[in-house]
Amino acid sequence: MIYVTRLDGSELVVNADLIETVEQRPDTVISLTTGHKLVVQQSVAEIIERVIAYRQRIANRKAEPSELGAER
After folding, report:
1. Are 16 and 72 in contact, with CB atoms under 8 Å apart?
2. Please, which residues bridge with residue 21 across strands?
3. Maximum distance among all Cα pairs of the chain, rounded to whole angstroms
C-alpha cells in the first residue's frame, strides 16, 4: 500500500498491486486494474519510488515483520 494525495489535498492509500499504469497528462493519473483512475499530486517518479520502497519492505518482511505499513 502506498500513500498518495488527490489534487484537492486529501490523502488516500492505494493498493500498489492494483496499479496498471501511471501517466503524466499533465497531472499524474494512476490507472488501476479495476478500471478506476486516480488523479494525484505526486509525479510519476514519486509513485514509482513509493511502489519500489513498498515492495522492498514486503520482500524484507521476514527480517522486519513490524514494518509492513504503507509507504509515504
Report:
1. no
2. 31
3. 40
